[in-house]
Design a protein that fits this description.
The complex is a heterodimer of chains A (245) and B (127).
Chain A (H helix, E strand, L loop, with lengths): L1 H28 L10 H38 L2 H16 L4 E3 L1 E8 L7 H24 L4 E4 L2 E2 L6 E6 L2 E7 L2 E3 L3 E6 L2 H10 L2 H7 L2 E8 L5 E3 L7 H4 L6
Antiparallel strand pairs in A: 1-10, 2-8, 2-9, 3-4, 3-8, 5-6, 6-7
Helix pairs in contact in A: 2-3, 4-5
Chain B lengths: L3 H16 L5 H26 L5 H25 L4 H42 L1
Classes of the chains: A alpha+beta (245), B mainly alpha (127).
Chain lengths: 245, 127
């Protein structure tokens, strides 16, 4: 009995020594995750997000590899400059810097006293014209327009359409920080039928007409039917430079 | 002699602090499961001693076997992509609570028995 108790105490002592050692090692080597999510679901979500990000980065790598191969092939054949110029042209077109032409529509808007107007709408139009122009532009882009301009001002991702008030009241609209006045002419390159259908569905013609403004849509189906100038304003990178932080 | 396990625990903790061993994060989960198995064995040993069925050899082999098998199970689960360590956590967790409950009952019984013995002894002394 005494022997058994002694073996118990010695055994338990040995085991507790080992346990104490293991516990200390585990506690001292575990990094602090206090700010990180610890639940299983949070971690699974994090893994899913990282997997998606990984997939996107893989796609980017694939695209970059294709471009690199293209450059290598061009370098070997001596036409690297041509490929780079083509790339520059594509980027400029996508950014809206380069002028474009193609099939599309033009919309002319002007005050027309002969239209059967709604007096309240007509009175409200000067204060709403920027929103109505933005609605037209959004409808055109939503209908697949690839390039849109208002009175020669190309609309790009950083463009703005703002109402301008002078000392004597509302005088007009600023597009790309450039003042424009009636009559407005919107030019859009894209699928003619889709853009016309988009404008019809939104009933924009009726909306403008009720304000006493004509809304004449003209389709140009020729290969260079509509000319949209390039954006010539300040680009975001012109003043803002990438920081170190 | 009963203070020896406590001294053992303190020595173990001191050893862990002095040696300053760092377990890689990848192996951290294996050590956690091994600690769980070790705790289960210790509590099982205490329970067995209260039930007067303690066997030193069974205790020692149980400690090492459980610890290693639990870590091995976690490793295999990791390799297979299945959370097998959860099985070990559940099994050891249930055993841990069972052992704690048995120890609690055993200690209560022991204390009651001692109290009864004392009362009986006092009664006999009065007679």
């Amino acid at each position: 009995m005494r022997m058994q108790r002694r073996s118990l105490i010695l055994g338990v002592s040995a085991i507790t020594t080992a346990l104490g050692f293991m516990l200390t090692v585990q506690i001292t080597s575990r990094p602090s995750y206090s700010s990180s999510p610890t639940s299983y679901i949070d971690l699974r979500t994090q893994v899913d997000e990282l997997a998606q990000e990984h997939q996107i980065l893989e796609n980017d790598i694939s695209k970059a590899r294709v471009q690199l191969d293209e450059y290598q092939a061009a370098k070997n054949s001596g036409s690297l400059q041509k490929v780079l110029l083509n790339d520059q042209k594509t980027v400029e077109q996508q950014a809206g810097i380069a002028p474009v032409s193609g099939a599309g529509i033009t919309i002319e808007m002007a005050y027309d006293p002969s239209l059967p107007t709604v007096p309240e709408d007509q009175a409200a139009f000067p204060g709403l014209q920027d929103q109505m122009l933005a609605e037209v532009v959004n409808t055109l882009f939503g209908s697949g327009a690839t390039a849109v301009s208002i009175n020669g001002q190309r609309l790009v991702t950083t463009s703005s359409i703002r109402l301008v008030s002078g000392l004597a009241g509302i005088t007009g609209v600023n597009v790309n920080k450039t003042p424009i006045t009636m009559p407005y002419e919107i030019s859009a390159v894209g699928n003619v039928q889709t853009m016309e259908a988009g404008l019809t569905v939104e009933q924009l013609k009726d909306a403008f007409n009720m304000c006493g403004v004509s809304f004449d849509v003209t389709a140009h189906t020729g290969a260079h039917g509509v000319q949209v100038p390039g954006y010539s304003g300040v680009l975001p990178g012109q003043w803002a430079k990438e920081g170190n932080g | 002699m009963f203070w020896l396990p406590v001294v053992g625990l303190v020595v173990g903790v001191a050893l862990g602090l002095v040696t300053n061993i760092t377990v890689p994060v990848a192996l951290s989960s294996y050590l956690s499961i091994a600690i769980l198995a070790a705790l289960d064995t210790v509590l099982g040993g205490i329970r067995a001693s209260l039930e007067k069925s303690f066997d030193g050899a069974v205790f020692l082999t149980g400690f090492f076997t459980n610890t290693l098998v639990a870590a091995l199970l976690a490793y295999i689960g990791n390799q297979l992509g299945v959370d097998l360590y959860l099985a070990a956590v559940v099994a050891f967790g249930v055993r841990l609570f069972n052992n704690i409950a048995s120890i609690r009952r055993g200690v209560f019984l022991l204390l009651r028995q001692r109290k009864l013995n004392r009362e009986n002894a006092a009664g006999r002394a009065q007679l």
